[in-house]
Automatic annotation (TrEMBL):
<keyword id="KW-0732">Signal</keyword>
<dbReference type="Pfam" id="PF05580">
    <property type="entry name" value="Peptidase_S55"/>
</dbReference>
<protein>
    <submittedName>
        <fullName>Peptidase</fullName>
    </submittedName>
</protein>
<feature type="domain" description="Peptidase S55">
    <location>
        <begin position="94"/>
        <end position="316"/>
    </location>
</feature>
<dbReference type="InterPro" id="IPR008763">
    <property type="entry name" value="Peptidase_S55"/>
</dbReference>
<feature type="signal peptide">
    <location>
        <begin position="1"/>
        <end position="25"/>
    </location>
</feature>
<dbReference type="InterPro" id="IPR036034">
    <property type="entry name" value="PDZ_sf"/>
</dbReference>
Length: 316
């Protein structure tokens, strides 16, 4: 009987080990970052970024996708420019599912709409972590939604670059502030973008990891997080990452709320800024999570996702 019980216990322990990979993942150490990054995603289509009134009285509407030029399928601005030859140009436009129409333009008119067309989406965010073993990074803490398309964009390739903060537009109640950044896409990219998930963007870090001055630290389990003092890592001047004091005021499941108590940060930014999403939060020397949102009417107050939840990439 004892032998049978020992065998059963060994079997249960083995099954627990096989079914609990997240426990192993959470035991890893990650490097907390905080750098502002420029995000660039190449799309497999050309779309209209602003409403355009054409000389014939028709409109190209924001979000329209140009599928064909003179009957030839296009998937980039380069092909659009290549195909707009001849005196009359016919564009096949798609808006939503199974809604298509054609528009006829002269060659000059087709060239004139070029400044209003895009084949990529871009933005600013904050780098959250780098895994020194797998060289995977995570950023933002939430999914990228293209503001024109109003949906997560399909993309064929993606890159992240270091961004330098040139100026701050301060937040005030009801008016979210933002970072004014310069991104040099001619520089070597920091990494690619493999996926745009509900919990952020993820990809492979391509830069020299040995040049990162911060060391890997342990991930804090959700049940270890406490109300009270913590620190926020983010960049508000140039590319320098600084530590600022915050207070965790609420913990609920895999999310937490916090208030900025650092007077230096409040005086410079007024609170959380657009572009701070992904900023790491630390407590007692461990990696807690990443900023995801601000409270518009209370800009000194923000929300964050725990790092253990962010590493799932998608909710269960």
């Amino acid at each position: 009987m004892k032998c049978r019980l020992r065998n059963l216990l060994a079997y249960l322990l083995l099954m627990f080990a096989l079914l609990s990979p997240s426990a192993v993942a959470e035991a890893k150490k990650l490097i907390p970052m905080g750098e502002s990054i420029g995000i660039q995603m190449e799309l497999p289509f050309v779309y209209v970024a602003h409403d355009v009134l054409l000389p014939n009285g028709q409109w190209l509407k924001k979000g329209d996708i140009i599928k064909e030029v003179n009957g030839k399928k296009i998937d980039s601005l380069e092909k659009f420019e290549e195909f707009i030859s001849g005196e009359e140009i016919t564009l096949t436009i798609e808006k939503g599912t199974n809604q298509s129409r054609t528009i006829k333009l002269t060659n000059d008119q087709a060239n004139n709409i070029l400044p209003f067309l895009k084949d990529e989406t871009d933005g600013i965010g904050t780098l959250t972590f780098i895994d020194p073993e797998s060289k995977e990074y995570g950023a933002l803490g939430h999914q990228i939604i293209d503001g024109v398309l109003n949906r997560p964009p399909e993309f064929t390739d993606g890159s992240i670059f270091l961004a330098s903060i040139e100026q701050i537009k301060k937040s005030s109640p009801g008016n979210p502030g933002y970072k004014i950044s310069v991104i040099n896409t001619d520089d070597i990219r920091l990494g690619n973008i493999d996926s745009n998930e509900l919990y952020g963007i993820f990809g492979h870090w391509e830069s020299d990891i040995n040049q990162i001055m911060r060391k890997p630290i342990e991930i804090m389990y959700d049940d270890e997080i406490q109300l009270g003092k913590a620190e926020l890592l983010t960049a508000i001047e140039g590319s320098k990452v600084e530590s600022f004091q915050i207070e965790i005021v609420k913990i609920e499941d895999n999310y937490l709320q916090f208030e900025i108590t650092d007077q230096n940060l409040l005086s410079k930014t007024g609170g959380i800024l657009q572009g701070m999403s992904g900023s790491p939060i630390l407590q007692n020397g461990k990696f807690v999570g990443a900023v995801t949102h601000m409270f518009v009417e209370q800009p000194a107050r923000g929300a964050a996702i725990t790092l253990s939840e962010m590493l799932k990439k998608k909710p269960d």
